[in-house]
Give the backbone structure.
Amino acid sequence: MTDHIHDFDEIAARAAADIPLDDASCAVCADEYRLQREIRSLLLSSAHPEMSGPEIASLRSSVFSAMQSPKDRRLKRWVTVASVAAGLLVIVGIGPSLNRMESADETLAAPNAVTTAAAAPLQADATSTAPDQRYSSAVGAESAPSLPFSPISDGGAVTEAELIELEDQMLVSLSGSTMKLGRTDYANSERVAPPCLPEDPVFGSIEAELDGKPIVSYLIEDPAGERVIERFDATTCELLLSR
Amino acid sequence: MNDPDGQLIVQAAKGDREAFSDLMRRHEGLVFSVCMRMLSNRELALDATQEVFVTLFRKAARFRGESAVSTWLYRIAVNTCLDAMRKAKRRPLDVLPDHFEISDDSAGDAFESVELRPELERAIQSLPVEFRAAVVLSDAHGLALAEVSEILGVPIGTVKSRVFRARKLLAEQLGNLREAPRHQTGESQ
């Protein structure tokens, strides 16, 4: 007689698939099989938790709102950023210098800069080279006044809401940037590269303290080519959020 | 493509919100059920369900069709719940209360086992998380072990072992069913 082995994993699988035991003569196996089937049957027969009607409505509304909000937020932020930038141009009187940069277009002379504020969103799109310019000056002099957002930023102590706001600013402001940050760039900005630097291309970073813990958020380009925010616990490098 | 879910996800990936809405309608109940059983907290489960569908929408274009949409969705749901549990550990005051909010109306269905539900849910919640995920998918949702293996990303042998041990632990929690018929367990409540 060969030694019998109680193969409990196989018993579990057979119970799951309603397949009887090959050899039910072993009392231990038969007993385990019965127990496994009883528990499975109990679970299968238990009613599934369900959402109420209002919960379903709320869920659908929240999901569709979350799906729409990134675009809306981006658009709103572009309007804000462009309006502020246009206002600064007027106040600081940079209009003439813009005119020099684009000397072929006489219509960009200083007096007309006021009217460009009204076309702020269009202007923001038209200055699509801006992210790289912003990047260059950000690395060289982080507090350049015309920067909507520095690619390398220190958020200090922030609340969750403030951090999300900063991350959104980074996402929007640097969404068109093609300049990737590397460790050298952090060195150029007189900062040590923050921890948890991802393998993916990085376009911006925010170091901050959230609930007393150091965190770092990166604007990266994922393998699908999508710009996403990844937030890490700066101490453990645990990924806290990806969106 | 005969799989209606497959067609819907392809359309959703192109930005068709109606297709996404249909997809959501087809699966929101099951996703919530998984989240509820994994998290045992209605608010957390609702949040997780929302996050699952937002993730689904954002990643729809990455769906390769190598597995069923439902398998992919279950995987997102389990991972979202695991994330929620990890976050909960960091904020212990917010989460996983000692009591269970099993307030759904479906509990009124005429299943014999319903009498056991609070005890059953408590027993499920007491399982180590990896055992819980395996047994919820296999036994509460009736998925084949091969599909559970795909969802959890572990070998099928591991799934068998987890399911076996989870059932053993549940049996211990619920009392010895071989000696105590269900109605006796129900009377103890």
